[in-house]
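This entry is listed below:
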Amino acid sequence: MKALSTKHNFLGIEDENFYSYEKSKVVIQQVPYEYTSSYLAGSDKGPKAIVKASQFVELYDEELDRESYKQFGIATLKPLDFKNKHDKKAVDYIETETTKLLNDKKYVVSFGAEHTVTYGFVKAFAKKFKNISVLQIDAHSDLRESYHNNPYSHASVMKRVHDMGINLVQIGIRAQCVEESQLIKKSKNIHTYYAHTIRNDAKWAGKALNDLTENVYLTIDADGFDPSIMPAVGTAEPRGLFWEETLNFLKTVAEKKNIIGFDIVECAPIKGSILSEYTLAKLAYRLMGYIHKK
């Protein structure tokens, strides 16, 4: 596969030794699939916006005291093409393309549009890794059986993951329907840490960590963060997560568990503002550093 060069790649990496597909361990997959957005649209522009914003992120990470990309290399692939593909065809396409990267022994980081894309990623990872958990940072539980009569809706993506029998840990949830609440209460495979309980439980992070299996696939919906630091999302909800508490938690997960891959989804850029996409670009780079510190 051919990686995008300096002008279009993540971080604007100039040395081909650190952005070529052949020499890079990390691969960024751009997945601009948007078909079922239920409020504000525009998440299909999110992946490209995150990559573009990343070119203004400093290569030196002051917390990790290194230029992390030199430890593993980051290849950025051109966006997947979803022409004439939606619902099951789109998910199958994502699964196929992700599987190719995993078969090439790449560490796959995906920037997606609507959250539906995560179903394709998880299906690919579940074929390669045993006994995985999905760690979901999100405002919404996404556990509806279907939404607008579509089982492939972004609002149903975690129900599809749950149907696979995969252990699910949810962080920051603060919007759901009663059926989702009932499913959480009766399922042994869903562990939900609501935003309002996190604020009143200093031990929530340790409990969530114990609910995870060794292999963890991480999915981050941008609206999991509070709108004050992440305004460019399709369905914003107050009382969200903040930067420091989220990074502290994810750093611990990276230290204690094996994060096998991750995605960032649901960024819908706002014209004239770069806050959200820049913050997500920095988050992605910091996470790569945490994960590969081992």
